[in-house]
């Protein structure tokens, strides 16, 4: 067959309802958790926990609902490069804002 | 002078009976086409129109700067001139130039495919480009924009009453045109390669456009949201970028330059690709250090995301942040330099001939190197404080973008013209144009380095009289440059009717696009090619053509 | 002829290839598999652009939350937790129904596909409905920045547990609400576009599309829908849950 050399014959894996249901449950639980934890004073950990839970939820959606778990390495690399670029935007801009006051007070 | 051009017998040669140009006639067959080659031609025509529009603004700017006094146009008008010149040249010319015209045309053929991965999205991309152009022309006709192409806040959000939102919308739409082109290229190069066409057998033109495409896809959306914020700020005046209301104007600049620095690599990388092809062909030698050139293209794309604040050194960023960005800027110069070394090494002991594309390529190598080196000066914090916002910067980016990119674009258009049209342009005319462009360019922009170093600020339409001589030289150069650019506008259309029949491979170049007829069939290949030779394999080509007669028709 | 030389080498390798041609295989693709993976790749790349698009807004949010934390806390506390949490649950449920729609398409289950597309639409509309209620509340409470914004609620909070803000910090609450409307508004715009496409997909599915082996349109729309869900997954804690623990 005339297919490019590097073509990955990824089996078209069909994710079933059981997996989806499990992930749904996990997401619902995590949502309840994040709302509940917001009412507890954890000081500096509040935003960290909130973001961490959000990240876990996002990862679950990406891996299972969006089938990334069953996709090719190229897709994984693509998604990671997207998040990496986003992180570069945030962190490198922050180098400016975080260090503006250094040496001043 | 020797030449490698090899044309079919002009007495008997004709254009191929069936090709993409005569496959369907009428406006609808062009405006609703999904053929990447026709879309490339559509882009070629629209880009040329906007190039001359942006160029006419440049002409007016140079005319005003003949004298130290602001005597040609009012200051507001002058602001509008350099703004529109910048916006049009960057977003409607440089960004799409090589990818949308040459890339769209040759990349599918180079990888051995029948079309890009998403032909309809390709057409949508062109329509978005045209709509963007309409928005910008509308803004222009209704009074223009005077914020500079950089839309710096809070000037653009609070202090001007020109058509910022319309222009921002135009740029937003042009951005999506660019995103879709980049998306198409990435997917095509990954997924549509013919059997045997491995990554490392791809022409380096593909690698360069692939790297630029990554930047288009990842960087342009940030520009989009930034312009949305500027528009919302103009409409509602909340204070997102206004210091009097607690906002930070530098937030705009961070977001803006996060795209606009990679944007310069979006603009130049495809030009690098052209130069690789041209230098190899006209030295009859494979590109030295293929892997280094390929990887350095991707490296430029990656590192290009880490350096944007070097446009903001004097704007109020923290010193520590400026240090980090300055260091990274030094780093990003390395992959570009690697390419220059590799091209020079390709020339060494090659059989060099001086056809027009090669003349432009030589111009590129010299001028881009100068431009790039001055970029390193600017990346150094101490130098930048003196040189920024002066004509040194203007000279720097014109050296890389005009001396570099525009020359590469012209090299590419001339190189692939016989493939696109089946005809050769008149060689002596085109060589004259290339030399004229080169001389005109140096006369226009080299004095600007000196002006900048001496302290003449940019974006001012008046200047101290001691700067006049250099300005007059610059304007004189601009006139010569203009002639150099006008000449192709005359002889290229001429060649469509009267040019020599080119045949499939007038340059005896390697690459799949040179193995098919000129102009190509709509589906490019009669049968899917199977690739079993490396890129720039001139021995394979010599062996293949040993017993062949170039016939067309 | 040149191209024939290359072409001739492939003729014998797949003689039967050209005749097994599903109608939905576009002419520039060689196999259905290639087409499916290519289109999916294209959608993922488009989602990358969306990540960076929203990314700019997240950056602005990060900065101003840091600079005007108190104003952001007060602004966030005017949002309704019950409504926000419900919306989050609604959207997560809609992601589930969308995923089940994809499953139905892949297992050639027309009725299932229609059912799940319909459910997704209903849930999407429910989300937008609740959002409208919330936006209306902001209008009534004079929290719309640049329009009818009043610092009263922040300088003299009605709830004794809320900390009063100094007038200038209270003004900065406008930046919070601006980002609230910009981010949820941009999100809602994506929802509206998604729901509109869902109607089209529902119509096509009703007429038998997507369940004959060519489910990639549903697959790829699903990717878009899940992405919009992910954006909300981050918006919810960032906008609604900044600091509720004194309540």
What is Rg of chain B? 23 Å
The greatest interface here is: A-C, 56 and 58 residues
Assembly level: heterotrimer
Termini gap of chain C:
82 Å
Strand content of chain B: under 5%
Share in helix of chain B: 55-70%
Key descriptive features of the protein:
B: 553 residues; mainly alpha; C: 247 residues; 73% helix; disordered N terminus
Question: Summarize this, please?
Answer:
Chain A is mainly alpha-helical. Chain A has three helices and no strands. The termini of chain A are far apart.
Protein architecture, described:
The complex is a heterotrimer of chains A (105), B (553) and C (247). Chain A is an all-alpha fold and 105 residues long. Chain A has helices at residues 17-37, 45-65, 73-99. With 553 residues, chain B is mainly alpha-helical. Chain B has helices at residues 27-31, 36-64, 75-94, 97-111, 119-141, 155-159, 164-191, 204-236, 249-281, 290-303, 319-347, 356-379, 381-387, 391-421, 427-454, 468-498, 538-545. In chain B, helix 8 (204-236) packs antiparallel against helix 9 (249-281) and helix 12 (356-379) packs parallel to helix 15. Chain B is globular and about 75 Å long. Chain C is an all-alpha fold. In chain C, helix 2 runs antiparallel to helix 7, helix 4 packs antiparallel against helix 8 (216-240) and helix 7 (167-206) packs antiparallel against helix 8 (216-240). Classes of the chains: A mainly alpha (105), B mainly alpha (553), C mainly alpha (247). Chains B and C meet through helix 7, helix 8 and helix 9 of B and helix 1, helix 2 and helix 7 of C.
């Amino acid at each position: 067959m005339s297919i490019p050399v590097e073509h990955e014959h990824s089996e078209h894996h069909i994710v079933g309802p059981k997996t989806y249901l499990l992930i749904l449950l996990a997401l619902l639980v995590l949502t309840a958790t994040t709302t509940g934890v917001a009412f507890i004073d954890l000081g500096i950990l509040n935003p960290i926990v909130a973001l961490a839970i959000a990240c876990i939820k996002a990862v679950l959606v990406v891996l299972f609902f969006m089938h990334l778990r069953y996709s090719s390495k190229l897709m994984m690399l693509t998604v990671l490069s997207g998040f990496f670029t986003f992180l570069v935007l945030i962190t490198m801009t922050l180098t400016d804002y975080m260090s503006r006051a250094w040496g001043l007070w | 002078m020797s030449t490698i051009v090899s044309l079919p017998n002009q007495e008997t040669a004709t254009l191929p009976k069936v090709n993409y140009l005569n496959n369907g006639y009428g406006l609808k067959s062009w405006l609703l086409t999904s053929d990447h080659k026709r879309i490339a031609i559509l882009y070629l025509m629209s880009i040329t129109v906007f190039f001359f529009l942006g160029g006419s603004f440049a002409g007016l700017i140079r005319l005003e700067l003949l004298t130290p006094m602001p005597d040609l146009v009012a200051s507001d008008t002058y602001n509008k001139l350099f703004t529109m010149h910048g916006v049009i040249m960057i977003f409607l010319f440089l960004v799409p130039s090589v990818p949308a015209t040459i890339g769209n045309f040759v990349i599918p053929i180079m990888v051995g495919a029948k079309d890009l991965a998403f032909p309809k999205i390709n057409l949508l991309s062109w329509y978005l480009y045209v709509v963007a152009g309409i928005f910008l022309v509308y803004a222009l006709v209704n009074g223009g924009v005077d914020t500079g192409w950089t839309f710096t806040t809070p000037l653009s959000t609070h202090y001007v009453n020109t058509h910022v939102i319309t222009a921002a919308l135009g740029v937003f739409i042009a951005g999506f045109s660019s995103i879709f082109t980049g998306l198409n290229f990435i997917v095509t190069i990954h997924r549509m390669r013919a059997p045997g066409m491995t990554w490392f057998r791809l022409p380096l033109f593909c690698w360069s456009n692939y790297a630029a495409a990554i930047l288009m896809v990842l960087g342009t959306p940030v520009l989009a949201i930034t312009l949305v914020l500027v528009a919302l700020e103009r409409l509602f005046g909340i204070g997102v970028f206004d210091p009097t209301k607690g906002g930070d104007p530098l937030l705009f600049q961070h977001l803006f330059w996060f795209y606009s620095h990679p944007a310069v690599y979006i603009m130049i990388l495809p030009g690098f690709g052209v130069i690789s092809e041209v230098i190899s062909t006209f030295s009859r030698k494979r590109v030295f250090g293929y892997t280094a050139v390929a990887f350095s293209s991707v490296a430029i794309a990656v590192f290009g995301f880490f350096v944007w604040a070097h446009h903001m050194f004097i704007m109020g960023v923290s010193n520590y942040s400026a240090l980090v960005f300055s260091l990274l800027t030094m780093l990003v110069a390395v992959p570009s330099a690697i390419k220059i070394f590799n091209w020079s090494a390709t020339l060494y002991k090659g059989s060099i001939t001086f056809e027009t594309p090669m003349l432009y390529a030589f111009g590129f190598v010299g001028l881009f190197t100068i431009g790039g080196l001055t970029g390193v000066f600017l990346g150094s914090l101490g130098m930048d404080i003196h040189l920024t916002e002066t004509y040194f910067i203007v000279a720097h980016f014109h050296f890389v973008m005009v001396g570099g990119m525009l020359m590469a674009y012209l090299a590419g258009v001339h190189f692939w013209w016989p493939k696109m049209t089946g005809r050769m342009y008149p060689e002596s005319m085109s060589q004259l144009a290339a030399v004229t462009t080169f001389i005109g360019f140096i006369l226009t922009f080299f004095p600007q380095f000196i002006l900048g170093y001496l302290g003449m600020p940019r974006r001012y339409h008046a200047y101290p009289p001691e700067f006049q001589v250099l300005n007059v030289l610059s304007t004189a150069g601009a006139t010569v440059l203009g002639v150099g650019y006008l000449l192709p506008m005359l002889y290229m259309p001429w060649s469509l009717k009267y040019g020599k029949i080119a045949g499939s491979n007038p340059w005896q170049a390697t690459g799949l696009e040179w193995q098919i007829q000129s102009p190509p069939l709509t589906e490019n290949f009669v049968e899917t090619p199977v690739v079993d030779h490396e890129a720039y394999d001139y021995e394979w080509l010599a062996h293949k053509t040993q017993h062949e007669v170039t016939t067309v028709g | 002829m040149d191209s024939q030389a290359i072409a001739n080498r492939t003729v014998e390798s797949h003689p039967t290839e050209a005749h097994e041609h599903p109608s939905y295989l576009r002419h520039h693709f060689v196999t259905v598999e290639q087409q499916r993976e290519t289109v999916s790749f294209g959608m993922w790349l488009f989602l990358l652009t969306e990540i960076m698009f929203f990314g700019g807004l997240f950056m602005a949010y990060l900065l101003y939350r840091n600079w005007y934390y108190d104003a952001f806390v007060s602004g966030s506390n005017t949002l309704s937790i019950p409504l926000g949490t419900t919306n989050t649950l609604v959207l997560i449920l809609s992601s589930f129904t969308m995923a089940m729609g994809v499953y139905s398409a892949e297992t050639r289950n027309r009725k299932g596909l229609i059912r799940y597309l319909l459910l997704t639409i209903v849930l999407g509309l429910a989300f937008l409905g609740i959002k409208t209620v919330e936006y209306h509340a902001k209008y009534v409470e004079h929290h719309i920045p640049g329009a009818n914004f009043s610092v009263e609620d922040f300088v003299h909070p009605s709830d004794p547990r809320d900390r009063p803000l100094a007038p200038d910090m209270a003004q900065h609450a406008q930046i919070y609400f601006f980002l609230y409307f910009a981010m949820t508004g941009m999100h809602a715009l994506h929802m509206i576009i998604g729901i509109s496409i869902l109607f089209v997909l529902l119509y096509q599915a009703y007429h038998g599309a997507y369940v004959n082996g060519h489910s990639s349109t549903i697959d790829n729309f699903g990717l878009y829908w899940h992405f919009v869900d992910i954006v909300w997954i981050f918006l919810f804690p960032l906008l609604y849950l900044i600091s509720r623990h004194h309540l």
